[in-house]
Amino acid sequence: MKLAVLADIHANYPALLAVTQHIESWNPDRVIVAGDVVNRGSKPLECWQFVKEKEKTCGWRLVRGNHEDYVLTHKNPNRSHDPVDEAIAQSSWWTFNKLGDAVNTLETLPDTLSFDSLRGEIRITHASMQGNRIGIYPWMNDDEIKKLIGDPPSLFCVGHTHIPLVRRLNGTMVVNVGSAGLPFDGNPCVSYAQITSDQSEWNVEIIRLDYDRAQAERDHFETGYNEEGGALAKLVIEELRSAKSAIFQWSEKYEKAVRAGEMGMEESVRKFLEERGIQVDK
After folding, report:
1. CB 269 within 8 A of CB 234
2. How many CA atoms lie within 13 A of 7 on its CB side?
3. pLDDT, tens digit, for every residue of 34-54?
4. Which of 173, 206, 274, 275 has its CA 20 to 30 A from that of 21?
């Protein structure tokens, strides 16, 4: 059996094209996209239409991620209209509008996929069985990971953290496939997992690929995302360039002050980037 699993495309269309080309040259039996196709990036509609076409024509299977959930919150008339909440959610609001009627198809995505193989259950979800925002990281110990797997399958695949991991945990092969659009481990090469099985074990290779990063940067500005996606869009371009998380670190340091009215979103992002010696792109 040959299984390809990718996740966390985050509307990075050039990266998606590069990963898909590599996957198709490998010719797996199944391809699974484990969530976060859209949002936190500049080409959500193009990426969503692409994977839905692959679902239709090639049998790709799709799982819902937390960023699909963020976009879907904008369908809820009772969502928060607090100014700070709206400022933080401006990126997903931009994505919501770019998707148009296609946003309705996000609701059809399952949270988890499970299917049988000769080696037992294969289970794929976005982050963990504890929720699509509770991820599995390389620095976690075995007991922490066990709690996030639940009833242990033979193969357990996730994304969400944007940091690859491969670990055998008792009878379970645990795989975090990293990110096919926005890696956070300092390596700008995007990733996906090639998984095969033989009579004795699962074999996993995390594939790292370069892609047209210059085009991805141009898309960030030419699509209007940098200007219209809110203050946090300025952090997304830094994440794209550095291959490291920035929004979480901004939240840890500045979100409380923004909510207390001590500074605005734009000011907080500018200060965050200046502390790192980064000039804010206009």
Report:
1. yes
2. 31
3. 999 999 999 999 999 999 999
4. 173
pLDDT tens by residue, 99-156: 999 999 999 999 999 999 989 999 999 999 999 999 999 999 999 999 999 999 999 9
Give pLDDT, residue 281: 58
Where does residue 125 fall: left (phi above 0), alpha (psi -120 to 50 degrees), or beta otherwise?
beta
Non-local CB neighbours of 158 within 8 Å, separated by 6+ positions:
7, 34, 124, 125, 126, 127, 128, 135, 136, 175, 176, 177
Dihedral in degrees, nearest 10, Cα atoms 34, 35, 36, 37: 80
Q: Is 149 within 8 Å of 172 (Cβ atoms)?
A: yes
* The token pair that represents 219 in the structure block: 């898309």
Q: At what angle do helices 265-275 and 233-242 cross, to 10 degrees?
A: 20
DSSP 132: T
CA distances from 134 to 4, 65, 128, 161 (A): 23, 11, 6, 9
Phi, psi of 152 (to 5 degrees): -70, 125
- How much is the average pLDDT of 11-18? 98
Residue-averaged pLDDT of the chain: 96
Q: How many CA atoms, within 13 angstroms, populate the side-chain half-sphere of residue 215?
A: 13
Q: Model confidence at 278, in pLDDT bands (50, 70, 90)?
A: confident
Q: Strand pairing of 172-176 and 61-62?
A: unpaired
Q: Which two tokens stand for residue 248?
A: 């979480």
pLDDT of 208 > 60? The answer is yes
